Protein 1
Amino acid sequence: MEPFQLTSSPGRPALLHIDRWECSHPGLSAGFTTRMGGVSEGRYSSLNCALHIQDDIGHVLENRRRISETLNVPFEAWTCGEQVHGRKVAVVQRTDRGKGRAAREDAFQDTDALITNETGIWLTSFYADCVPLYFFDPVRRVVGLAHAGWKGTVLRIAQATLVAMSETYGSEARDVMAAIGPSIGSCCYEVDGNVIERIDECLTELGASEDDRRKAYRPGAQQGKYMLGLQELNRQIMIKAGIMPMHIEICGMCTGCRTDLFFSHRKENGSTGRMASWIGLNL
Ligand SMILES: [Zn+2]
């Protein structure tokens, strides 16, 4: 069954929830926004969540407020990093609550992953095709969120996030639940040989089998082009880092195929809005 389930009502942001997690763990909220149910206009229509593109800031903040209202969390809980396709993980403390919610300047700088064990903090990050990675340790009540494009993936930000959870909060990989959210699929993500060289290095570091390599990418229609599956590569990195395969949920929706539901950087020629991923504990 698709782990990300859509909830929508007229005039409200349409949101995808990781249903099984939320049902099994009271107080946990985790999911992904769509492009529907906001106030942004034109190419950002309508639920653009990101401040770093040329959308009207008032519209973005209204969208974030509407999402908060729909999730029944205060807007003050939104906490964001300034994403740079790196591998830095920030530990979010109570005093950091709300960083980056209304302006980029006070977000965690150069940060693609956030972790916390504080309640009442909503970790968020932003996407148009890149891969949202979610982490939840139900034993120590720790949540984590990481943004992984191909660069963050080969930098193994998934592993870095898990290591930070372990070093900071004592999380053990075997307890950790992970989810890989809506992102561009290998059906739509064509890359050049220079990207595949880096992917190959990463697969070699992982000790990947030939079968694992075939699952991560395949030749494209044109000579020198490849179709890359970032979800699968992140899954392999998570397993190598000690997460149990049965604890990994993978979204089956491709942001490139579903531009009715999602913004897609690739399909919309780099000029589009961003969705938000979120995870938080409210008790
Ligand atoms: Zn696709």
Protein 2
Amino acid sequence: MPEERRLGEVPGPRGHWFWGSIQERRREPLQLFTRAHQEHGDFVRLRMGPTIHLLSLASPELIKHVLVDHADRYNKPPSFLRDVRDLLGNGLFSSEGDFWKRQRRLMQPSFHKERLATLAEGMVDVTGQMLARWRSHSTSAPLDIFSEMMRLTLAVVGRALFSTDVSGTAERVGQAMAVALEEVNYRGLSFGLRPPDFIPTARNRAWRRVLSTLDAIVFDIIARRREGQTHGDDLLATLMATQDADTGERMTDQQLRDETMTLFLAGHETTATALAWMWHLLSQHPDVEARARAEVDTVLGDRLPTADDLPHLRYLTQIFEETLRLYPPAWLFARQPVKEDVLAGVHIPASPRVIVTLNAYVLQRNPKLWPDPERFDPDRFSPEHAADRPRFSLLPFGGGQRLCIGNAFALMEATLITATVLQRFQLRALPGRPVEPEPLITLRPKGGLPMLLEPLSRPARVTLPA
Ligand code: HEM
């Protein structure tokens, strides 16, 4: 038996004698991780200050070990969960153990393909509302497509959860949620260096206000639905109706509140950042865009897309998948070892001082797995090519039991939005404006994504809401 290596023997950048790589982690994380993996291999160790070891994993085998084979030895880091718990409570994203398992079992049916298909019309409808707004936008004034996509995906998830019977409410939740998201980002990136919640800073008070606004709205929606004052064929309806197969239990109001907030938060920023990157990539690759338009023309002509069209809009889906490879919104996510482990021959202690990160950004640009990795090539995701790729060479939605529950939702949403927009508009890059990634909690385009809108000149036969 080869001897186990100690944590300190995992190679990695030396960094500053005291701070290690903490400054670079803050200032230029993509460069730091990319360089570290190029120089030291798929398994690297970075010191974050004198006591914290950050392990970065970027190979399918290492990732499978942590997310699947020994998933019971790794939890989501408690510090991260603390930052989101006020907002997400014990929802699917932030719970662990048996409670999480039960909730996941209860929620899964709401995300089955047939169930999702009923949400397609709402997705196309809110996209139409955005395009109606775009029509009155000047063609010479840049529009921030990142903000537009955030607004759109927020509306999509609001509609999917609460349908239209609470008109205006989904929008109010959306506005409060946008503020909440900024705070969650701030908390996640302050690395513990922020005034604690009990100190009434302006920021902490604003946070409390947003939380009570959200609570008031969401509990009111749930109460009115329970009393039969509103109806809807939406996610809230399925979540309320679902019963635990073993115990017959249904979700309490508090659980419904937590899951609703979770779906709102987890379901919009990720999809919006990916869509923004997709519009950027399409503007840089006219050949891909032309093929996408040809597919839309052939499959849809001028009619709006439905769920039944999805299998035929395969190239559009591939474009989104290839975008997720180059710009994974969840570019890095973390675990903390809660039981001892041996990973690639290295002893991993169960310690809060060890952070294990799954590095989707580096993995998905690894030339051993992805030849010519910087090239944008949606054909990588054609059925023939996808078949011979190792499992876990791609990680946009995570993996193992905590795999994103909304992955099919996101792919369907992205494909429907892309088709609907392509029928009506061409989005052009702003000449001379560099577009760079900014790795916050998600991988956003830095400073937004201003683009120029060009309405298509062909006959306006697609009827969109005024
Ligand atoms: C392109 C869009 C999306 C991306 C890239 C994405 C990415 C991810 C990732 C990486 C995780 C796993 C995190 C971890 O294991 O630590 C996750 C979990 C989750 N996502 Fe998504 N997501 C997307 C869209 C959505 C949508 C549309 C929804 C809901 C409508 C959603 C709901 C969730 C939930 C509830 C979880 C927690 C699942 C669990 O732990 O059981 N996501 N997502």
Protein 3
Amino acid sequence: MENILTGTKIEKSFGDDPKVTILDKVDIEIKQGDFVAIMGPSGCGKTTLLFALSGTDTIDQGSIECEGIRLTGMKERRLADLRREKFGFIFQQPTMLKNLNLLDNILLPVLQNSQKNKADNLSRAKALMQKTGIIELAERETTKVSGGQLQRAGICRALMSQPAILFADEPTGALNSKAAEEIMTLLTTINQEGTAVLLVTHDAKVAAKAKRVLFMKDGKIMTELNIDSSLEEERVEQVLSAMKANGV
Ligand SMILES: Nc1ncnc2c1ncn2[C@@H]1O[C@H](COP(=O)(O)OP(=O)(O)OP(=O)(O)O)[C@@H](O)[C@H]1O
Ligand SMILES: [Mg+2]
């Protein structure tokens, strides 16, 4: 199966004097339908890796390919188009425009699309809001919903372009455990429907939803856990023992 994303010997450092290596020759492959979690101590380079793989930030050495197309060295304009078409992003807290309601915020990324797609976009946004359980909040101001509801809106927005891969940096980091569980159930469904998911988390229960867990340390991927149980409790147990073995 073709990789959606292939990172080869990715290197990144910050600063000149001294130069600090943040990503140290990282190799990573994400396949269609993959669900990958990245774990590791604070500062080990997880967010930097996500930014590098998604073309959000540049790298010093190595290459990144999306479905066989090389992102590294690509012209900015083309890279922006590719990111918009292929990638969806969710963060700890979605950034929403306060003067727009939830529905309009979800529609934002596709505003540039041609006029003839307007009706399709609107029905897609509404279908996503229905699916994520926030359709009643379509007209609501973004400051008047809960954190979990706002994150669901963030997920709807990320899915508007039908991305091949969803990047998520600690998507449950700002949520209570019930809302976190709901968001993870949603991400699992989205993954089962065909979108690859690459997420960063510190939470064993969150990582336990993934198929593979990569453990990072000092800018390197040290080990990979393939979760092989279908029982929730055993999955969490597997992640917890791998965390312990990797000093997370
Ligand atoms: N723009 C920058 N300039 C200089 N150093 C940076 C920059 N961005 C990140 N770093 C450093 O790179 C290292 C890795 O940061 P990164 O944000 O990738 O860590 P992380 O694994 O995501 O941590 P956390 O779990 O706390 O989010 C850190 O030491 C950080 O201070
Ligand atoms: Mg981070």
Protein 4
Amino acid sequence: MSGPSKRPIGDPPEAGAAPEPVDIPWVDIHQHTQSLTWNDREKFDLSGGQAAVAIAAGYYWAPYRPVSSDDVRFLWDDALRRAAAFDHRHFYDQYVAVGIHTWSRVENADELVSVLPEYCEDDRVIAIGETGIESTQHTTSWPLEGQKEVVREQFRVARDTGLPVLVHTPGSSKGDVDPRHVQSYEEGNRNFTDPLLSSDDPKTEAVEIDLALADEVGLPDEQLVIDHAGRSVRDFVLENTGCYLAYSVSAPWLRGIDARDIAAAIDAHGSDRIVVDTDLIGAMDNDPFVMKRTMLDLLRLGVDREDVRRVVYENPREILDLA
Ligand SMILES: [Zn+2]
């Protein structure tokens, strides 16, 4: 036997060689804050959260089925009330996005479109959405022509108010969900309706329709955030449009993307129009520290600090006009 063990992992680093502290703040443009807990929101405070946008419409919490315009209006009002309570008790600013989501058909959606401009006047409402063409719905199918009408009209309100639109894109349904998580996803695969889009790349097909609708009403690309980015739309959006592209990082087991995809996108296209959001939602497995963890992963992958700061903080602030 030899004597007392020596340091088993080598000498401590030279002064200055240790990693710099990660003190980059973040702003999350897309989360379903009203479905999270107080402890989740405290983790935003603990991990550098400066602001977050709660998506007001989520038919998940609609009190009745089928979902009517009154149910969605209830959700908008509820999100606004909760947001006011949240940011008096936390250290980040809680904002709200108001819109008509297409993941379940909404009856009399035109009634919502007509009051949307009033909601946009609320100081707390800083984006429209999430909305955008979907291929499948969770409850009742919403034929494409009806979806186009309601998405186009929301784009028209965005043009008139100057607010950005968070454009939901398909791709997290009817996929091969990791069986360890599928039971945790309350709105899981078995509820989905048959797909309406015919191609094997519904995400790109939906984005093309969304862009055509934006063109119809003259909504500038810079006001569009193409959300839930996937590999198939990356180059198309960043090369052929002026839109922002947002990666939703809270459920890699569902969306099939992680920090490596974001690092590769920054490498290929620069960080000017790339955004990280969480899409945190209480209806499925989630990690309230996911924004901070993604930042650490990006730094470990060799992404420059300035680029990390741009995709989690500067770009979100620019989109939301918080700068
Ligand atoms: Zn979405």
